[in-house]
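In the present case, backbone shapes were mapped to integers, as reproduced here:
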Amino acid sequence: MSFQVPLSLWLAALVVVLVALIGLALFFSGWKRFFRGKFGNGFGRVIAGAILLAAVTLIVAIAINLRTYHRLTYERPVGTLVFTQLGPQQFRSTLTQANGQVATVELRGDEWELSARVLKWTGPGNLLGFNALYHLDRLEGRYQNLEQEQHDYHTAVDLSGGGGLDLWSFARSHAWLPWVDASYGSATYLPMANGAEYRVSMSQTGLVARPANAAAQQAVAHW
């Protein structure tokens, strides 16, 4: 699926490039002046250039991390989950994400749970038209019995990917960060059953899972 890059993002990228060029110019001209004996002026330019380059590096690191997220406008498909029973409370789960990535893992328990991290924008971010973003966090097995849930072996797989600065965690631990709301996570869970298939979507209210075949419908009906 392709989408048009908003003008605001092109403008933001242009600003970052300009700041990087200014930072480089200040940094190297500062060293040049420094070696010519103009220590005060040269040192000031080096520091100013270094600060600008550090800011650009931080922005690029954040941008790299945001590439692991998906744009969230209206409800959109996240992926499908298919289960094959291997034994008592033991299932092979195949998660096929909307972007084509496939993960096959063994889960223990009676239910599956899929969670996601959601980034929302406030203030100027909203005014610039930035959409909410999400990426899947992890898939794990759950037990219906509380005693088993507290003491039995748990299985989970990390789906977050990674790369760059983890903006979601950084924003949660630094509440002063402007424009970013990382207080929102989402999860959905349904029963596991042999041959069951579920379709998962993400909406503005969170993850939504629905049975996609008769085996899943029957499992939900007897849940």
Summary: Residues 70-221 form one domain. The chain has two domains: 7-66, 70-221. Confidence is low (pLDDT under 50) at residues 1-5.
